[in-house]
What we know:
The protein is of the alpha/beta class. The chain has helices at about 40-50, 85-110, 110-130, 135-145, 160-175, 190-200, 215-220, 240-280, 285-300, 330, 375-385, 405-410, 415-420, 430-435, 455-465, 485-495, 510-515, 530-540, 545-565, 570-585, and strands at about 1-10, 15-25, 30-35, 55-60, 65-70, 180, 205-210, 225-230, 230-235, 340-345, 350-360, 365-370, 390-395, 400, 470-475, 500-505, 515-520, 525-530. A hairpin with a 3-residue loop joins strand 10 (about 340-345) and strand 11. Helix 8 (about 240-280) packs antiparallel against helix 9 (about 285-300), helix 8 (about 240-280) runs antiparallel to helix 20 and helix 16 (about 485-495) runs parallel beside helix 17 (about 510-515).
Amino acid sequence: MIRVEKLSYGFPAKDLYRDISFDLETGQHAALIGSNGCGKSTLVDMLIDPEKYLFDGKIIRDENCRIGYASQFSVRDKAQERTVFEYLSERFLKVQQDIADICEEMAVAEDMEAAFAKYQALLDLNEAMDGDNYENHIKKQLYVAGMTELADNQLNQISGGEYKLLQIMREMLLSPNLLVLDEPDVFLDFANLNSLCKLINEYKGTMLVVTHNRYLLNHCFDKILHLENCDLQEYEGTYTQYRCSILREKLRLKLQNIEEQEEIARTEEMVAILRKRATDMVNPVIGQSVNAKQTQLDRLLARQIKPPFIEVREPAITLPVVESEGGEEAENEVSTPVLAIEKYQVAFDKELLQNVNFELMKGEKVAIVGANGTGKTTLIRDILKNNNPAIKIDEDIKYACLSQLQGELAGEDKTVYQLMQDAGFGTKESIKKYLSGYCLETDVVDQKVAQLSGGEQNLLQIAIIAASDAEFLILDEPTSHLDIYAQVALERAIADYKGTVLMVSHDFYLVANCADYVLLVEDNTVRRMRARNFRKMVYDKYFDSRYLEVDRKKQELEASITQAFKKNDLSAVDKLCAQLEEVSSL
C-alpha cells in the first residue's frame, strides 16, 4: 500500500526524522502517536503530498493509490444550504454528472482518444467508490454512527461534533486506498466519540490515524507507529500490547544496564590499576595494556542502549500554589462563592441555555459536560467577560483562563517570546529554560504562536497559567491536542491543585479523575451530578460494562510499575508487568 524507507527531514533549526522506515499494508488500522511537536502532522502531510517537500529517503505508494484525508479542524460551509444526506451524496453525484458530461462531449469530440481516456478514468473512479450503490452505503454509515434520524436535517442544524463525524464519513464513503485522519476525536463529546470508534472499527480499508485519545487507542487499532526524538518505532499489535511490550523492554534494558554498569566499574578499576602501575614502573607493556583496557571501556560506554521510546519525557506541570485559609476565624466565616450563576440564559438561532443556576465554592473542582453545541463554551466566555448580571465572580479572587487556542491565542501575530514577555516573564534564556520543563523545544521561543502545533499551544498556555498566582482556573477543553504524557501530567496537576477549577471537557479520563462533581448540560439547562454517578452513567450508556474496572486496574498497575522502577525494585516490576499483561488480555 505505502512504504517509507530511510526518510530524513527537518528544518534548519530542528530535525524531525532521521532514517525512519515503516510499511502500511492493505486493511491495517494504524495509530500514529508521539509527543507534541514531534512532527506527526508533517509526516501525514508528506505521505499525502510528497512533492511539496525536499527530503532524503523514499516514500513509495502503489501506483493507483487514492488517499482520503480529514483534518483535525472542521470548518463548516454555512453559505450552502444542504441536508446531511445531500452533503454525503455530493461527490458521488459530481462523478456521475462528469460521466454524463463526457458522454455528451464524446459525441462531438475531435480527439476521441483523449475523451475516451477521461471517460474510462471516471468509470474506474465510480467503480472504486461503488458509486452505483452510494445511497445504501450512506444509509449504512449513518446507521453505524447512530445518526440515521439526521439524514434530512440541514447542515446548519447539527452540532460541531456531528459535522466533524460527517466529514470523516464523507471520506470513508469514497473508499480511498488509504484514509488518513488527523486527531479526529478532538472536541467530540462522549456520544460522538463512541460513534467514531464504531465507524473506525467498521471501516474495511487501510487507515492511518493521528490520535492521543486513550479510548480510541485501546479499542480501534492493530498497528502502532510511535514517533519520538526523530525516530519511529513500528509495532504490530494493539496499543495495550504495545504498552506492555514497552514496559517489558524497559525492564530488560534496566537489567542489561545493571550488568553493563558492573562491567564498566570493573574495567574502570582495572584501567586505574594498570595506569598506576605504568606510571610507577615506566613499563611500556603495561602502558599498552592500559590502552587496550581503555579501548574496551570506551566500547562499553558507547554501546549503552538509550532508546527514545522507553523514557518519554513527561512535562513537569505544576499549577499555582494556593495558600489554604486556616484558623478559627476562617472556620467561623461564612464562605463566599467564587462564582455564582443565577437565572442565566443564552440563545442564538434557538434557545441554548435557560434558567441556569449554580455556585462554585473555594477549592471545588467542577466539570461542565454535555453534547456538542449545547452552549458550554458560550457560558465559559460569558463568565470571562463578567458583564452579564446573571454571573458574579468574587471580586477578590484571582483567576486565569485556558481557552480553545485556535480562536483566541493562535490568531495572534506574536512570537512565543513576545507572548511570554507580555505575561511578565524575563529574558529569552530564562524563558527557554522554563519552557523546557514543559517539553517545549528551545527553538519555539522565536516561532510565532500560530506556527506551533495544537498541543504545543496548549502547553504554552498551561505554562503561562502555572507561573501566575491564580486561585481560580477556568479551563476550556484543557487536554485537547495534548499527547498522552501531557494529559496524564495535567490530570495529576489539577488533582493536586488547592484552588478552584471550572472546566469544560469531553475528556472522560480528566473528568473522572479530577472533578468533585459534574454540571451536566441537557434539556437547555444545567443539573448537578456527583462524579461517581456521572462515571456510572457514561459507562452504562457508551462503554463496555467491564471497561471501567479493567481500565482503572491498568492505570493502577502502570503507576505501581513506575514506582517500582524508581525504587529499582526490578523483581516487583517483573511481577507487576505479568499482572498488567493478564489484565490487558481481558
